[in-house]
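The step that takes the researchers longest sounds almost clerical: writing a folded protein down as plain text. The outcome of that step, for a single protein, is printed below.
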Amino acid sequence: MRRVVITGMGAVTPLGNSVEETWDSVVKGHSGIGKLTRFDCTKFSAKTAAQVHNFDLSDYMQINKRHRMDRFAQYAVASSLMAIKDSGIVPGETITRERIGVSFGTAIGGIESFEEMHKNLLEGGYTNLYPFSTTMVISNMAASQVSIALGAKGVNTVSVISCASGSNAIGDAFRIIQRGEADAMLAGGSEASLTPLGIGAFCAMGAISTNPDPKTACRPFDKHRDGLVMGEGAGALVLEALESAVRRDADIYGEIVGYSSVSDAYHITSPAPGGEGAIRAMEGALSQSGLLKEDIDYINAHGTSTKYNDKFETQAIKTFLQERAFSIPISSTKSMTGHMMGAAGAVEAIFTLMTLKTGVIPPTINLTTPDPECDLNYVPNAAKKARVNAALSNALGFGGHNTALIFKRTEE
């Protein structure tokens, strides 16, 4: 099995349209959540969202193909172009195109285009539909458009497992390189579901915060949390075989050493009691990593700001780490980005790698009234500095999906 490192990263988030801008905001504890303005939400129980601002695909591509891409695919392409540039890989030159693959995730796909096209169908029949209607809606189009934009001709796959999609896509890319099927993979997740149907469905479920104050609406692990806040955007990482990165003398953010994806087989929305599935995911990732539990210095939690997720994830971490769970720093960066759904795990993997690189642990903001059932060290409200040698990132999704990734500092 080949060792796999991360050599490039890119991001489009509610906190900024680059990794640098986003990370700077996270470290400062800034919130990307604001009033929902994408559509008229007067009749919706949710009034807040974490929206991407000042995004224009033409900033990233010489030829503007926006009319052929749903917003979620645009975010994927932009973040991927940033990541490949950051890596220094020139497809077809530094690595042959056939040895570069793509693994991208999304929870919902082209819902914005779906809603628009359904409206067009009702108004004028099928002849009123855009010729690229199908290819703007289907979930594989993030991976497909990234592959086309980069000229990457290797493995091309998509992960659609709810809120764990981005993490799962990274894990699958890790295994593809380990097995020798590719030398580099562009992996990540993308989402753009801030639409009437996307928001409305979560309102109907009762899973979304109704707090009218955007800046305090998302409060993971806090006693007064009342639901998630939806976000959007994309995160992309370049995973590369260590020998390839060393040969190129590439800058390395960290090494991915563990990945596990398991199912609760319990309920379509509720996590299994005690976080049983999350425990097995963390244990599985650790068993692959060659590390001990004592080596894990930080956890980027799934931390959705919902009643059961935060409670059961806390219980899972306690079971996984035993007494050490009370001292290890844990943070939910969703408190600042909102829940980016299929993009969440990818962006949070980026935050985890930046923690390894910089020694800065992001805070969980809005944690002012601790929940007695959520009694771990969630780095409340202000970042802290600490050397982190190995870190774990959790992603849990509707349907009972549990994914864990482990990253560590690279030693050649």
